[in-house]
């Protein structure tokens, strides 16, 4: 059973202002929820149609009908469970060897996919410009497939950070060096730009290492790659050795 | 001005059965529409709020209000134009050197992104299993960003095709050979599997060249990559030389 107030609260968490006001976000699906539980995310409450999370005490979980689940889910086809978690306080930035910095990524699916990629390639620190979509947006949480629990995300003034970092700074441009022929170090900061405009003019001068993913052949008119697929290729190149 | 019947027709084209019945699909946005126009797609009618396609004769275009555009668009934030095109008859399969075969890709965004990637990497032939999402789904058309005009897509019985092709067949699995250390030819057929289940049991035996994209480090628990990002890495590896 889900009360009207609970439905109102959970659906409100689809909007950033209510996530901030309540310091809560929600995740859907057994796997993603389990990974958050295992990673010190503090559960507020779990709503499940069937799956019994034995590790959760009875006062923190409710069995609900599929109809109730539909009312609180953000998905067209809801999973079997929705869990509300507390938004943790931002952890300090990890001084890792390889950092991904996102310059105004707007699409939640792209951000989620990039976090999943970072997790795959062992990158534990992602920096987002303040204009980047909120990591606790339910579509981001969904697209990370649990990786949100393992990648540290901080929202920062990217220009300020790039000005002070000692890491070499990389980014992709149409006129950069062929990434396949560039020596790529195992430490560095990789800037990925906005879906429509790429890396912003404000940051471009700070990106000293300009890379390009070569387009194959000359006949194609494709002007760009999706930012998540471009990130996949760049991270693969940095890690392939 | 858009008539009620036109609104009814165009919105019906969001569903496959009405696309088939009417042999029509629609695209949104100036750039994507222009690329379809330049690529022999036959325009039925264009609805635009502002942008004047000079190359289109007056009887094939209408200036509409933003409110009208909202009624026919499939997007939450409509572009400035919607164009209805005839679905062309399927062209014969191109006997190219490198073919991508999709085994039950269900998500329209993934199919669109993969076609955009194929276009970037100069792959002009994509084969889809009959279970793969329809290429004329508006979300697919949107995600291709115009690449749908340059990549030949055929829906086939994939098993039958794999049984008769002379191309070496590649696919990614959790237990395959490290793709970074494999010699990859410039001809071959690359099978990419379903979002949840990977390559189907029915096809697996036919994929003689089993590849893996290595996960970096051992601590990560990420179980998989999104199929579009995996395709990005695989195509990059085949083309990087």
TrEMBL record, chains A, B:
CDD domains: SpoU-like_RNA-MTase
Domain tRNA/rRNA methyltransferase SpoU type: 98-235
Cited SUPFAM superfamilies: alpha/beta knot (SSF75217), L30e-like (SSF55315)
Signal peptide (residue range): none
GO terms for MF: RNA binding; RNA methyltransferase activity
GO biological process, any: RNA processing
Keyword list, A-Z: Methyltransferase, Transferase
Gene3D superfamilies linked to this entry: 3.30.1330.30, 3.40.1280.10
Boundaries of every MRM3-like substrate binding domain copy: 5-83
Family: Belongs to the class IV-like SAM-binding methyltransferase superfamily. RNA methyltransferase TrmH family.
Name assigned to this protein: RNA methyltransferase
